[in-house]
Structure formats: structure tokens, C-alpha cells
Amino acid sequence: MNKLLKRTLALLLVLLLTLGTVAITDRVLLIKRYDGVKPMQSFYAQTPGTVDVLLLGNSHMGVHVDTATLWQEYGISAFALWGGVQPMWNSYHFLVEALKTQTPKAVVLEIGGLSYDWEYADEATQLKNVAGMRLSRNKWEAVKVTALQDRWASLLLGLPLYHQRYGELTAEDFDYFPWSKGLENYKGSFALYGHGNFDLGDAATITETAEISAKSLDYFERIVSLCRTENIPLVLVKTPTVDLKKYEPYCNAVEQLAQREGLPFYDFNRMGEQTGITGEDFYFDTHLNLNGARKLSRCLAGLLRSTVELTDHRRDEAYASWEVNAKNINDGYLRDITAAADYIAELQRGGRSLLLIKNGDWENREPYLGFVEALANLGIAETELLADGSGAWLLDPAAGEVSGKDSAFAVNGKEIRIDFDEATVRENGSIVYTFRDLGITLLVYDEGGELLDTADFLHSGYFALSRK
Amino acid sequence: MSFVNLQFWALFLPVCFAVYAMMRSARGQNLILLLASLVFYASYDYKYVLLLLLCTGLGYLGGRLSGRDRRYCIAAAALLLLVLLVFKYTGFLLGGLGAALGFSLPAILLPVGLSFYVFQGCSYLFDVYNGKLEPERDIISYGLFVCFFPTVISGPIQKGRELLPQIREKRALRYEDFSFFLLCFLWGAFLKLVIADRLDIMTGKLFVEYYDYHGLVLMVNSLAYTMQIYADFAGYSYMAIALARLFGFRLGDNFRQPYLALGIQDFWRRWHISLTSWFTEYLYFPLGGSRKGTARRYVNIMIVFLVSGLWHGAAWSFVLWGALHGLYQIIGHLTRQGRTRLYHRLGIDTESGAFRAGQRLVTFSLVSFAWIFFRAGSLAKALVYCRNMLSGFAPWALFDGTLAGFGISGLDWAILLLALGLLGLVSALREKGLTSGCILKQGFAARALVCWALLMSIVVFGAYGGEYSASAFIYAGF
Question: Considering the entire predicted model, what is its pTM?
Fold first, then answer.
């Protein structure tokens, strides 16, 4: 081999290694936004051809539709490919990106993005709606329409905009590689815990029609056209919101567009009876909590199944990641709950074993009586909890099964012992929890017998939920 | 489009180099480089390309006409200096007069690189006038000499007798030149993006809000600026030298570890060498240098430094900066014998490492103090800055997180100190005679590793993109 060839090959090798290192660095430093970036990165990790329902749009789509419910109750393999404050042009380019690897049977588009009347979003929104995309011609086209020219290069490469994150890296930052299981097991939707109590107005009383900006309309039409070309049914939705004055005029405009294009449009603000959503199902005035999202998802699933043939994949091993996604959403939600009543209501959904420990006796019983009444919904008799002395029970709320009062149990082959003298819970001999204060403690196990969450309802705290 | 701009790397340089590589003659190579240089210059401000061409034409004509009468060189140089005067000093010279007489002058924007290419043209004309250089006949060669894109914005200021012979010869593409280019450019970019632009976050803030701070904070800030201006300008110079080498040109060093200087005179032998050399050859020597007695020597030194101050900027603060350096040198010279006697009497070993370290520290402190006047923006601001800096020591500012409040976090400070440590190490090694050639003599893997480490440091720790506004090279403003 002559000298020139050797040198050229060596240089090429170094160049490749350098590019590889830069690519890995980019993955690590990438902003891990739960909206825009994480959904897109996770989408790339999906097995090609497995996403049956593609949920597109802004945060209303990402938060209001629960992929866990769609999967667990209907076997629908749905993916929410969304970004916060996502304008139509980014939704369009997300769709183009999605269709590179997936052939969804339906695309559901949240039309909230049509209400944005600006040409360009703020810089943070611009970044999160393109940073997750792989370098490609489509990303370049997305960048060009997302920002003014002076930001094109930075947005395309990404690293110039987030390379300074080296001071804030966490374990999650090192789990964003194409082979990361965490990405495959994430299906986009984002659950919120907490609720306000909003008055929901009557959407039908708002009759005016808003003017959709030319740019938004252009990209809406591109989405319609692309779905038509790919022969994918497109379903337009406006998910519930408290701020009807803002969105309903756009819904009225979309109603006309949908009629013109021959597309189904569901304005869930006008379908309260079908969804069953109330003011308590809102996290705040713009977004539903997970309970609201579950209700909406059931309604949406019914509508989708009435128009599109969707296979129930729940028994298909190839779709196991949807089960993991559902579990992750529900487990995460459970851990987020901070109110005792909500916690007990969530546990009633089943799928978990509960170890209930009553530690000690107490004089002031009034707050306890109310709490015992709530606990009874999990299947345990009030008389057991009101009896003197400490004790522990193993519950399966879905099956309505309650063990006898005991201090040793078996959960999925694990031996669990409660020692009231030393106030500990041991799993196969190892201490996993201590409960020194007077009150009730719940240890929640998943179906595999893994400890999911622990919650204390202490006498000193009037039986409000607390966690160590 | 600067050297650390994506357009430069993604489009300009690859296209320029590819077309250049296809040229079979020196003239073809020069033509391509000249055209590329004009495109590069136009990317800063296309309107001033005409001025650049005018100055190029003036220099070329002056040289060509020198065959008839050498005074044409002086006339052309005078016209070039007049252009500089009009564009750079009109406001400074007539602003006060205008205020007194009640009229205002329209603002004239200083064309980028004007001070550099005017001085380069003058150096050519003076050399031709003095018979040190044959006038250049080829307009393309002369055009490239003035407009060459690596040097047109901020130097190093080239002399015709050094660069023109290289321009006339066809340059071969050499692997060694490419290796040098990579290493030298990355080192320059490291200085600029990891050190200078990071320090700029702090100095940019504190040189504006200095009136709110006192003592150690302002001292640290002036030290930060001392390192910033060096990393910025030396970084630029390394990149310019590297780019020139990519096309086969060898430019001399513009910096030689200036902050390791043992005195002010030594400092100026190491700092902005191309400008110091210009002033020495074309101003200090013609004024008589040190040949006409001590008093005249001091006058000449002061003239050179006052002009040098004015060359850097049309403001009294720059004049005072120059005057300070002139005074440093004169005082140093005046006290030299007395100091030598004192050291002798006290039995101080002036060759010892500790003594030299002391000399370096004193020189560094004097230079650092003078930079305050250079950076402050006006004489009044510089004086207030100095007053605040010398009042209220407040050493706790180093430990109570105050310094982290100026845009550089704790981790960023650590990275900065590591980068400055590396700069110090490299400077010390170079002082010992270990140049970049030592790395280039290493095996391929070692060279590749050094380049890779520099590149990754820049990619991750460089102050670019995002929250950082791309800061221009400081000397591009002169």
C-alpha cells in the first residue's frame, strides 16, 4: 500500500471515530424534554410497523390521550408523537418522520396547534420540536420552517444549542441511545396527577369562527394531503379544555375544514356526556389529569374502532413494550399521588398486591374512622382495622381477596415478614421498610412482586398520605 | 463569516480548498485565493470590498510607478494612511470641534480589517521605497498579498518581502502542512472558544457594571480580561497561520508566550509581533531609534507607543494605554542601572528562577493594569474602574460565590482553570523550546489523539451557540 493511500485511510478512520464520538456526545447532551424530544427519540426505537394509531399534535394530544388505557383496555398500539406548543408545521414534519418507519392504520390530529397565529414559536419551543429528530432532509425542511435563518444551522445540528448541558447530566442522559430499552418502552403520552375543580362551559354557545393563520392552514393541508397519499385515515380532534373562548372559534373553523375535506372531526368539548369528563378531571385549566385522559381515551378508542379496523395486540409478544409502557405510566402516576383518597381510588383499579400494616393503637379515633371507611374500599373489613393491637394483611383489591391478620406473607415467591417489635418489613430476610410511627402503612407490590411504592398514613398526620 | 463559523467550515473552506487543489499554476492558485478572499471579506460587509480594492489598487500603483519616481511610494502610502485617518479618526479628531461649534458629524463605520491591510500596504510601499523589495508586477499576486483571507481581518500584518516570494511560487499540497493546519487551527479555536469567549461572559458584564463592584472582583476581572485578550488574539493568529499553511504559506509567529516576558520591552518582543515589528521598522527606526541619544530615544519610544495606542482605537483610553506602555519602558530603562546595583548589593541572584518569576509577575501585573484602559471604552470609565478596584479589598468574593454570579458557574470555572492551566503548560513548554513541531514529529496515533482531544473540548466546553452570542474577535474591531 503506498504512503498516500495509507495516510488517506488513516485520516478517514480518525474522521469516522471523531464523528462517532461527536454523535455519542450529542446523544448524551441532547435536551431530554418529555415533550417533543423524548417522544421523537422513543419513536425511532419502535419496531417498524407496530404503531397502529399515531397521535399527533401539541401538549393536548400528549397529555389528554393515554396510551396505557388504549393498550390495556383495547389492545390498541398507539404512540403520541407530540411537542409542547407544537405548531402545525412541526406536526407535519413529525408525521413525515413517522411514516419513514411506521404504517399507522389511523392518524389522530389534535387541532389545538391551528390556534397559533405566530410565524415562529419562541426559541425553546423551536428547539424541543426539532431537536429529537435525526439528521435528515426532513429535519432540514422542519428547521427552515421553524425558525429564522440565523438559527437554522444551530437547530439542525442541535449541539450548539445544548452542548453546555455538561453540568447538569443525570443517569437519564446516558440512556438515550437507539438500543436503550427505556426508549422503546415509552409511547409518548404524559400523565399528570392533581385536579382542580373547574366549571366547564357550554361549547355550543360559542358560534364565532376564528381565522386560521395562512402558515398553519398550509401545513394542516399538507398533513391532510400526506395522509390521503399514504391512504391513512385522518381523524381530527379537539381534546377538552376549560378555555372554550380561546379554542372553540377554531373548532368552528375546523368543522368547516373537516366538512370540506370529508374528514371526521370530534370536538370533545361538546361531547361531555360521551366522555364523562368533569371539571375535576382537569389538572389545571388547559390540561386533563390522568383520570381525564383515561376517560377521553376510552371514548376515542370507541370512535376509532367504529371507523378503523384495529387489531387487539395484547396477546402478541411483539407488542410487549406497550404493556411495559402502560405499567410505567400507571406506576409513575401512583407514585405521584399525594392525596389519600386518590391513592386508595387508584389502588382499587387492581393489578397490584397491597401489604397493609396497622402499627399500634391510638386514642383519638375520629379522623381514623373516616380513613378506615375509605380503606374498606380496598376490601378489608372496617372491624379488622378498628380492633385493638397491631397487625398486617395482604390485599388484592381487584380480586377482593384479603388475607387473615398475620405477620408473614408470600408475594410472588418472596417471603415477607413484619416484625412489630423492631417495626420493620423484611423481604427474604432483608429490611425493606421501617414503620416506627403510629398509623397505617401500605406497601404496594406489582404483579411481578416488585415493591412499587410505600405510603404512610400516620396518626400524627391525621392519616394524610406521606412518603419517606 | 469568521474562522469559527459553520458557513466557513461547511461551505467556504471546502469549496475554496477543492478548487485551489485543482489549480496547476501559481497564478491559478493565486487567482482562486484572491477571489475567495474577496468573498470572505464581502461576507463581513460587501460595501467595503470596494474600499479594500481601492487600497489594493493604491498600493499596487504606488509600487509600479516607483520605477519612474520612488516618491510615488510615499504618495501612495500617504493616501493609504489618509483613508485610515478618514475612516477611523474623523470622529475622534473632529468630534470635539463639532461639539464646540455646534455641529455633529455623521457616524462613519470602521471597515473591518482596515488598520491591518492599510499597514500591510504601507509596509510594501516602504520596502519598495527603501529598495528592499522589487515592485510586484502581477496585480493578482499583489491583490492576494493584501486581501489574503486568513490575514485580511486581523493580521498578522505581513511584509511584502516575506509573503510575496511565497505567492509567486506554486505551492504544493503537503501532508505535513495539513497536519500542521489541523493542530494549529484546533489550538487556536480552543483558545478562542474555550478560554476567550468563556471569559468574555464575565468581562463583558463587569466592564459595563464595574461601578457596582469593588476590590478583588474587579482585580479578578482585569486578570480575566488579560487572559481573554491573549486567548482571543493569539487564538485568531494561530488559526490564521494554520489556514495560510493549508494553502502552503508559512507565516511567522505573532505571539511568543507574552505573559512569560521578563520586562515590558521583552513583552513587546512577544506580543503582536507583526505589529511591533512594523512600528519598529517603519516608525521607531526612521525616527532615529536609540541612535540619537537617550532623551531622543525616550521621545521616540513615547511616539511609537502613542501611535500604537491610536492604531488600536480612536479614543483617549487607547492613547493612555499606549502612553502607559511607553512610560513602563522609559522608567524601566531609567532605573535599570540602579536596580542592577541594588540587586548586586543585596546579593540577589538575578539568574535564579525565583527572581525571574518575580520579574514575570511584575511585568504581568503592569500589563494587566494597562489592559483596563484598553478595555474600559473611555478614559473616565477606566479611571472609575481603577478607583473602585483599589478601594475595598473584599477577599471573601473569591469564596462566597460572588464570582459565580457573573455568568460563569462553579463547573465552568473549573473548566476554565483547567484550560488556562493547559495554556500555561503549553507556554512553559514552548518557552523551553518545545514547539508544535514536537507533537507533529510524533506518530499518527498521538497526533490524532491530540487533535481529537482539542476538538472534543471545543465541541463540549466551547462557549458557542445557544445562550452564548457569537463574540467577534477583539482585534477585528481595530
Answer: 0.85
